């Protein structure tokens, strides 16, 4: 018989599809309670078993989100979700780990949240009914779009500078980026592969791209490759790679 989750805990997916609490975190606060509106009285009394870093122990969820908002990185992640892509939960979890500005789901509003491990509670997740709506949102804010897909002629991620403010766009598993998304991206970047498979998991590709952004803009490790553009169009020129 499975035990019920501990108060304040995040549900953890198990192999049999049921949720149960993993024993993480801390128990009830010992001693006089700390002062501050960001503390949650229920968590202080019953313990905080959520999957959050120690800095946010006993904090209210809303207070955590507000604090993250003060230091979010200015890149966004967009995922096309035409056939209910199961990788989106993993993408959201990684986006939270790198504290990106927002995750944008294009197409179907519903997505499988199990892989997000409850991190969607702390991450801004937006929905756009179609690619055109995403493009309009980005254009209004002057944020360029950069696709990530192993398409013929795509520019290697490893040698292409990533803008500081950017929307990294990923197609769904299988079909990849839609033609409409490809046309409007300033560049389409590929991830170097050296094995026999034609592609890597979309969630893994998103994690690699996000880490590339962090290396460039948080750790000051930008790549030296040129940004290739077609004069007068604002779009990238995709050279054929040998």
TrEMBL record:
<protein>
    <submittedName>
        <fullName>rRNA methyltransferase</fullName>
    </submittedName>
</protein>
<keyword id="KW-0489">Methyltransferase</keyword>
<keyword id="KW-0808">Transferase</keyword>
<dbReference type="InterPro" id="IPR051259">
    <property type="entry name" value="rRNA_Methyltransferase"/>
</dbReference>
<feature type="domain" description="tRNA/rRNA methyltransferase SpoU type">
    <location>
        <begin position="75"/>
        <end position="211"/>
    </location>
</feature>
<dbReference type="InterPro" id="IPR001537">
    <property type="entry name" value="SpoU_MeTrfase"/>
</dbReference>
<dbReference type="GO" id="GO:0032259">
    <property type="term" value="P:methylation"/>
</dbReference>
<feature type="compositionally biased region" description="Low complexity">
    <location>
        <begin position="24"/>
        <end position="33"/>
    </location>
</feature>
<dbReference type="InterPro" id="IPR029028">
    <property type="entry name" value="Alpha/beta_knot_MTases"/>
</dbReference>
<dbReference type="GO" id="GO:0008168">
    <property type="term" value="F:methyltransferase activity"/>
</dbReference>
<feature type="region of interest" description="Disordered">
    <location>
        <begin position="1"/>
        <end position="33"/>
    </location>
</feature>
<dbReference type="InterPro" id="IPR029026">
    <property type="entry name" value="tRNA_m1G_MTases_N"/>
</dbReference>
<dbReference type="Pfam" id="PF00588">
    <property type="entry name" value="SpoU_methylase"/>
</dbReference>
């Amino acid at each position: 018989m499975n035990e019920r989750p501990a108060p304040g805990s995040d549900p953890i997916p198990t192999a049999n599809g049921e949720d149960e609490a993993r024993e993480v975190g801390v128990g009830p606060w010992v001693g006089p309670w700390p002062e501050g509106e960001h503390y949650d009285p229920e968590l202080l009394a019953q313990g905080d078993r959520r999957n959050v870093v120690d800095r946010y122990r006993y904090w209210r969820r809303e207070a955590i989100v507000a604090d993250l908002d003060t230091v979010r990185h200015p890149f966004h992640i967009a995922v096309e979700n035409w056939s209910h892509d199961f990788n989106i939960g993993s993408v959201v979890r990684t986006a939270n780990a790198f504290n990106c500005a927002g995750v944008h789901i294009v197409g179907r509003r519903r997505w499988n949240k199990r892989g997000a491990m409850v991190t969607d509670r702390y991450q801004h997740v937006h929905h756009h009914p179609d690619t055109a709506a995403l493009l309009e949102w980005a254009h209004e804010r002057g944020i360029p779009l950069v696709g990530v897909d192993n398409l013929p002629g795509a520019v290697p991620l490893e040698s292409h500078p990533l803008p500081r403010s950017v929307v990294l766009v990923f197609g769904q598993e299988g079909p990849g980026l839609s033609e409409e998304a490809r046309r409007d991206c300033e560049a389409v970047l590929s991830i170097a592969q050296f094995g026999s498979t034609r592609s890597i998991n979309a969630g893994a590709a998103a994690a690699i791209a996000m880490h590339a952004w962090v290396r460039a803009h948080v750790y000051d490790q930008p790549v030296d490759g040129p940004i290739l553009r077609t004069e007068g169009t604002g779009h990238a020129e995709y050279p054929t790679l040998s």
